[in-house]
Amino acid sequence: MGYPRVVSTFDDLIAANERVEPRDEMPDAYRATLVRQIAQHAHSEIIGMQPEGNWLTRAPSLRRKAILLAKVQDEAGHGLYLYAAAETLGVSRDELLDALHAGKQKYSSIFNYPTLTWADIGAIGWLVDGAAIVNQVPLCRCSYGPYARAMVRVCKEESFHQRQGFELLHTLSHGTEAQHAMAQDAVDRWWWPSLMMFGPPDDASTHTGQSMAWGIKRFSNDTLRQRFVDMTVPQAEALGLTLPDPELRWNEERSSWDFGEIDFTELFEVVKGNGPCNAQRLAHRVRAHEEGAWVREAASAYAEKRAAREVA
Amino acid sequence: MVSTSEPVGIAGAAVTDVAHYAIALGDDALIASQRLTEWITLAPQLEEDVALGNIALDLLGQARLLFQYAGSLLDPPVGEDDLAYFRDERAFRNVSLVERPNGDFAVTMARLLVFSAYQLELYSRLVQSTDSTLAAIAAKAVKEVAYHRDHARQWVLRLGDGTAESHARMQTALDAEWPWTAELFEAGWLAPELVAGGLAVDPAALAQPALAWVRAVVAEATLAEPEVRPAVSFGRVGRHTEEMGRLLAELQHLARSHPGATW
Ligand SMILES: [Fe+2]
Ligand SMILES: [Fe+2]
Question: pTM score, two decimals?
Answer without folding.
Answer: 0.95
